[in-house]
Design a protein that fits this description.
With 134 residues, the protein is α+β, with helices and mostly antiparallel strands. It contains one helix and four strands.
Amino acid sequence: MTLVETLIVMGLIVILITATLGSIFSMQLSTTRVSDYNSATALVEAKIYDVRAVYYNPPTYPFTTNVVTITNQNSIDLNEAGTTFLVPGTLLTKIEPQGILGHLVTVTATFQTPRLPMTVSLQTIVNKYSGGQQ
């Protein structure tokens, strides 16, 4: 093997190592983002279930004739020790009357993740037939 061939092989090995490290880093970022999204979705879904569990008897709170907005602070993403939450956020619950259909419940979570802010939103209709109310 000549010196030129050796340099070419070494260059190819450097490219291979760089591509491998780049793909590992990219996969780590993607899995972190997906786990944050799953955590935020679970919190939003739990809040939807909380609202659906309230006895539906309008016009008593929270199912009034006006729009009701409830704001809660929440966090996701524990540190490695499992003792401190790293990503703070806000859960905004909006309950809007929809006439004879019942009330439209929209829960939106916004979290300030390290790379990009994350927003997750779910909606449901709550009426006298939902959640085993009748």
